[in-house]
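Section 5: illustrative case.
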């Protein structure tokens, strides 16, 4: 692998500073929906409340889109209520609000893995598919909005992990996880064992689940198949290989990194690789006082093993303004809004046309990389008890990575039980 390393610096020449403000004419002229074009069809005056996690878009573009809605609909103004930055805390608060039955929430901005849970519990309303031109959306993000044969939401933004790598040290990104492991080992041999090879998201939250699924997929293994059946027992060798590799390439001790702390580690120059979301690209190009920018490039995760992420917008079951809520969702997921959210905010768009825009492709040279990663991204189980499944799975992963504990013999039964809503594995199926 020696030939793949570089021993000189090169500037990040392909990055052009600044954010493009212009929007392609085809998007400027796109009508949102007939419902939005006719404000008179909305309910009586009143506020539309969106319950959402933290806005991680650059420059708060979600709020900017809401501001645009408010200018167009002064009698149906919207307001975002932001929750914790931690996904698990967001879900808990959203569930508490939904279960209270107070009816003070009109729109939920849900993680893609929560849509089935909220639909199954009756906390959100299904959408009329006959009035939604679905062919404009990317198929993967739209699929996360379906459950039990119905459409329950529209995709607000999509996401997939990318591989950030030191382009001053590597000629080419690794194509397989074995290549990545070899690169880390070689760099540690050259520079000392204090090199932090792969900065991922290893704290005890959904980030650890995603990182583990990606490493397992990169080893040719699966935990859940396309039908939603747990198959970890059939893939034990590959599962163990993937997790063992993750432990080897992670910083010593597998520290509890999240998206922000892994970015800080990579920016410091100590890590050869980082796994993170596309929105962190612009963060890494920003100059920090006293800290020179790290020289990097991006690629799909090795073996195209990325896991699909993102958020979906759904109408709350208890809202007394369902037409206004649906109109707002259609506005926020329209082609023009998606263009702004990606171009200015860095959150990957859910609309196909945005990726074809020549201005976007000129300014963001990693768009083809992002498109490929999204095309191959694997969804997580779209099941109501996914959160319990994730908790059980990452508890086993945490033990494997940090305590060198083998996966439990009954991990298959535990995960099957979790997806069925059982708190503990049952003795029979």
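Designed sequence:
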């Amino acid at each position: 692998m020696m030939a793949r390393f570089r021993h000189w610096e090169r500037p990040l020449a392909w990055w052009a500073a600044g954010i493009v403000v212009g929007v392609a004419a085809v998007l400027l002229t796109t009508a949102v929906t007939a419902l939005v074009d006719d404000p008179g069809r909305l309910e009586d005056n009143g506020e539309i409340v969106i319950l959402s996690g933290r806005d991680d878009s650059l420059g708060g573009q979600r709020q900017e889109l809401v501001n645009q809605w408010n200018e167009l609909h002064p009698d149906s103004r919207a307001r975002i209520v932001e929750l914790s930055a931690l996904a698990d805390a967001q879900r808990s608060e959203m569930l508490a609000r939904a279960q209270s039955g107070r009816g003070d929430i009109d729109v939920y901005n849900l993680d893609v893995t929560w849509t089935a849970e909220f639909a199954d519990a009756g906390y959100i309303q299904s959408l009329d598919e006959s009035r939604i031109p679905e062919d404009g959306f990317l198929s993967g993000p739209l699929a996360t909005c379906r459950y039990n044969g119905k459409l329950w939401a529209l995709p607000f933004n999509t996401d997939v992990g990318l591989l950030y790598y030191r382009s001053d040290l590597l000629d080419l990104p690794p194509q397989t996880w074995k290549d990545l492991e070899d690169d880390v080992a070689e760099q540690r041999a050259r520079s000392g064992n204090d090199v932090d090879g792969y900065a991922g998201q290893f704290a005890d939250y959904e980030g650890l689940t995603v990182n583990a699924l990606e490493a397992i997929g990169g080893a040719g293994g699966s935990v859940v198949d396309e039908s939603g059946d747990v198959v970890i027992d059939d893939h034990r060798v590959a599962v163990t290989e993937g997790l063992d590799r993750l432990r080897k390439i992670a910083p010593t001790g597998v520290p509890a990194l999240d998206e922000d702390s892994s970015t800080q580690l990579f920016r410091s120059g100590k890590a050869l690789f980082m796994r993170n979301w596309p929105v962190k690209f612009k963060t890494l190009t920003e100059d920090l006082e006293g800290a020179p920018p790290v020289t990097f490039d991006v690629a799909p995760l090795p073996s195209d093993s990325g896991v699909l992420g993102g958020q979906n917008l759904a109408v709350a079951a208890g809202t007394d303004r369902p037409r206004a809520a649906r109109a707002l969702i259609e506005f926020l997921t329209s082609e023009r809004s998606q263009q702004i959210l990606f171009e200015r905010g860095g959150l990957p768009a859910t609309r196909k046309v945005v990726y074809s825009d020549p201005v976007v492709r000129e300014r963001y040279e990693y768009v083809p990389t992002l498109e490929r990663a999204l095309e191959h991204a694997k969804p997580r189980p779209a099941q109501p008890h996914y959160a319990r499944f994730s908790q059980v799975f990452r508890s086993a992963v945490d033990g494997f990575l940090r305590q060198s504990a083998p996966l439990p013999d009954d991990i298959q039964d535990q995960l099957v039980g979790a997806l069925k809503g059982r708190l503990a594995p049952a003795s029979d199926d």
